[in-house]
Structures are given as C-alpha cells and as structure tokens.
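Table S2 (continued). Query chain:
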Amino acid sequence: MAIKWKGIVPRTWRRLKRIFLILFILQLVYILALKWVNPPITITQFSSWISGDGLKRDYIRFEEMGTYAKLAVIASEDQLFPDHNGFDLNSIKKALENNKKENARVKGASTISQQVAKNVFLWQGRSWFRKGLEMYFTFMIELVWGKKRILEMYLNTIEMGTGVFGIQAAAKHYFNKDAAKLTRREAALIAAVLPNPKKYQINPPTKYTSSRAGWIVQQMNILQKYPGVQEVITKN
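Corresponding output:
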C-alpha cells in the first residue's frame, strides 16, 4: 500500500501543476484579449439575469461615452484614479482603521481599477480569498490595459440600476438618451447611486441622490481643470 501511495502522490501533484499552469495561461490570454474586446458576460451580469433582475446592457466605445459620464464617476468613486497604480493606500488605511471600531459601519476603499477587477473577473462578496484575487487582477489590468481602457470597461460593465449595466443602458433607462448626450447633472445623478444602485433612486431622485449629485457636480467642476484628469477622459 505504501508503494502505491508513493506513486500516486507525485502523479497527482504533476497533474495539478499542469492544470494550474493551463489555467494561469488561459487567464493571461483572457486579460490580454479584453484589452481590445469586451467580455461576453460577467458573473454579476449572469447572476442578475438568472435571479430575475434582468440584464440591460449595451457596450459602447470610449469616444461614445461623452465627457461628463467619465468625469462624474471619477469625481464620485475615485478622484485619484489618474495618479494611482490601482490602489489608494491612504483610503485603504483609513478604511481599515474605521472597520476596527466596534459597531462601525464597514467601509470600503476600492478604486475604479479594483471595481473593474471585481466586476469583470470575479464575483460579489467579501472574503480574503476573493480580495487576494482582486488585488492580482487589479495589478494586471493596470499593467496591461492602461487607464483609459480601465475607465471604458468600468463604464460598460458597472451596475447602475437593478439589472442595468453600463452607462449607455443607464442613460437610455433613466433619461431616454445616449450616454454622450447626458448633461453634467444627469451624469452626476447616475454616478450618485454608485456603488449601491439597487438602494438609491435616480428617477425621480431621492433627497440623498439629489444632494450627492450636487456634490459630484462641484467636484467635476474642480477636477476637469487638472491635466491628468483631462488626459484620461479625452479620446484615445
């Protein structure tokens, strides 16, 4: 029996290593492919569809998104997006300190890059394993895609309402217009419900949504003056 196990264990280990190597190569190929093509579907989109929430989605090109939508999500979600390497270390530190407090409301510190990594490659939820994968994919897309592609993917895949994914679908759903024709205020209203679009209402806006949209517009007015932001939101 001992002799059998001596043969089985090395063979099993070799097979596992081969499987892991194949999976590693496949995910690298997928990451590289998504630099130019959009994902056929994400886990979050599939979950929305099978749960009955529906799936409204319409991928559009970077130049079709308009300036205000790009500026609004940067102002709302990640104002250091043009400058960081995928992680906002100061925000992470503050979130960790806050979450240590007893009865504190759990806060996140996800950048736009981290949200793209989660939404495109992973599933929703909280676990150290998923967080570790998120960090890996964040690093890879920053390395391979670049800021404009990350922002484009974010605006095409993020959920912006129950079963509504991407800025084009959101613009059609809430304002019956293309994303490029959104006003500054309309783009800010859509950004105001992130990252919890199932909780907050856009049309008509709740008091919270309207107030946050006003703050986002103010931030947009400030951020649009910075060369780094302009470089990210303009055409390729």
